[in-house]
Amino acid sequence: MTIVPLVKVNLIGILDDKDKVLEAAQTFGSLHLIPLSSAQKELEAVPEGLGREAVEALRWLVEGPVQRRPVTVSDDFDLEGVVSQALHNRKSLKVCQDRLVQLERRIRDVEPWGEFSFSDLAEIGDNRLWFYVVPTGKIDLIDPAGKVMEVVHRDRYRAYVVVLSPDEPPSDAMPVPRVHVGALSLSQLRQRHEQAAIELEDLELERQSLTKWRYVLGQNLAAARDRSARQRAGLETADSERVFVLQAWARQDQISGIEDLAGGLGVAVLFEEVSDKDRPPTLLQNMPSMEGGEDLVEFYQTPGYRDWDPSAIVYVSFIIFFGMIMTDAGYGLLLLLVLFLFRKRFAGSELGVRMLRMSTWLMISTTAFGVATGSYFGIAPPQGSFLAHLKVLDLKNVDAMMKITLTIGVVHIVLANIMRALNAKTPSARFQPFGWCMVALGGLATFLGQGTLFATSGPVSVVGGLLLVGFFGSDRQVDSVSSGGLRVFDGLAALARIVNIFSDVLSYMRLFALGLAAASLAETINSLSGQLNHAVPGIGILIAILVLAIGHAINIGLGLIAGCVHGLRLNVIEFFNWGLKDEGKPFRPFKKEETRL
Question: What is the pTM of this model?
Answer without folding.
Answer: 0.74
